[in-house]
């Protein structure tokens, strides 16, 4: 890219491509490669913008009837994996973005848990990433954290049990 693009413009475009047009991943890859420079692609704000748009596109309904369509996340797996690239900081930022999104949606039941399950099952976010988020005490990331933690207690219980099973065998 030759012209610098603002984060706001990136967010708007991602929102448009993912939510309004439900565009193919290839089109989104192409747009990102053409429009977003490398340092921006690796930036926390970009990761958050991408994660927010992808997850918003997977949520149907609103208020207490909001539900996640896991297949939407699965279809966007390549997109998330490419830019998160299994980097610890990116995974953490992605989870902060989810926390903020679910907080904005007023914590509809089951949404965060389904997102966590799907992101884990699809190998988009690692066990370490989830554990890092759980332990995070970042003062800038506390809004909605307590409620979010309560919603995913069972996820972390399951994660630890799965860990124990692996170490037992």
TrEMBL record:
Signal peptide: none annotated. InterPro entries: ARM-type_fold, eIF2B_epsilon, W2_domain. SUPFAM superfamilies: ARM repeat (SSF48371). Coiled coil: none annotated. GO terms for molecular function: guanyl-nucleotide exchange factor activity; translation initiation factor activity; translation initiation factor binding. Residues 1-169 form the W2 domain. One of its GO terms (cellular component) is eukaryotic translation initiation factor 2B complex. SMART domains: eIF5C. Gene3D superfamilies: 1.25.40.180. Pfam families: W2. PANTHER family: TRANSLATION INITIATION FACTOR EIF-2B SUBUNIT EPSILON. This is W2 domain-containing protein. It comes from Magallana gigas.
């Amino acid at each position: 890219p030759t012209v610098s693009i603002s984060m706001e413009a990136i967010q708007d475009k991602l929102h448009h491509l993912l939510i309004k047009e439900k565009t193919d991943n290839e089109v989104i890859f192409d747009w990102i490669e053409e429009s977003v420079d490398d340092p921006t692609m690796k930036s926390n704000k970009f990761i958050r913008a991408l994660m927010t748009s992808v997850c918003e596109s997977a949520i149907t309904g609103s208020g207490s009837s909001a539900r996640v369509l896991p297949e939407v996340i699965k279809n966007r797996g390549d997109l998330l994996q490419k830019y998160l690239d299994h980097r610890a900081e990116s995974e953490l930022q992605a989870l902060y973005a989810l926390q903020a999104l679910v907080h904005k949606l007023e914590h509809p039941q089951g949404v965060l848990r389904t997102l966590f399950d799907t992101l884990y099952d699809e190998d988009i976010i690692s066990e370490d990433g989830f554990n890092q988020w759980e332990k995070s005490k970042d003062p800038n990331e506390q809004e909605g954290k307590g409620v979010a933690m309560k919603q995913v207690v069972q996820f972390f219980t399951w994660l630890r049990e799965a860990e124990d099973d692996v170490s037992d065998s």
